[in-house]
Amino acid sequence: MAEELVITDPIVHPDPPAPPPTTKYRVVSFTADVETPPMPAPAPGLLVIKVRDNNGIALTVQYVGDQAMQFIKYMNTANFSTVSLQKRILQKLSNEGYLPPGTVTGVPDAVILEVSDAPEKRLQSKDDQSEHSA
């Protein structure tokens, strides 16, 4: 089981048709860009984290400018031999109020990591490339 934040108090959705209560979140992507300033931020730095709850609903959190660079530095200097990247992200999002309080459980799993590089190059699967060349 991948690491996930099991929230202390499940979120009940009262409006019909109500999905089951939200009880946990997991990291599905983490993108860092230390070069390109997102508009209208005056300084470079963009960090985008996407989590998904147990009902499949995605939540995206963006850090920009100095806040993004501080988070990236925090991650760059972390010791991942004791606490994984996923766990640190979930704990930080919870501590900052983006996610409800809870406990991270499970074992580390793969996280989608996109690294920005100039000039930007998008990779396509072989299937996508063959469709565009036909």
Notes on the structure:
By secondary structure, this protein is of the alpha+beta class. The protein has one domain (4-133). It is built from 3 helices and 6 strands. Strands 1, 2, 3, 4, 5 and 6 form a 6-stranded mixed sheet that branches. It is globular, with a radius of gyration of 17 Å.
Summarize the structure.
The protein contains three helices and six strands; from the N terminus they run E-E-E-E-H-H-E-E-H. It is of the alpha+beta class.
List keywords for this structure.
134 residues; alpha+beta; 6-stranded mixed β-sheet; 3 helices; globular; disordered C terminus
DSSP, total strands: 6
Strand content: 25-35%
Summarize the amount of helix as a percent range: 10-25%
- Total domains: 1
Inertia-based shape? globular
Major pleated sheet? 6 strands, mixed
Task: Enumerate the spans where pLDDT stays under 50 for 5 or more consecutive residues.
Answer: 112-134
Structural class: alpha+beta
Mean model confidence by pLDDT: 80
Compute the gyration radius: what is it?
17 Å
In angstroms, what separates the terminal alpha carbons? 41 Å
N-to-C order of helices and strands: EEEEHHEEH
- Number of alpha- plus pi-helical segments: 3
Write the layout of secondary structure elements.
Elements lengths: L3 E8 L10 E12 L12 E8 L4 E7 H12 L8 H11 L6 E4 L6 E4 L10 H8 L1
Parallel strand pairs: 2-6
Antiparallel strand pairs: 1-2, 1-5, 2-3, 3-4
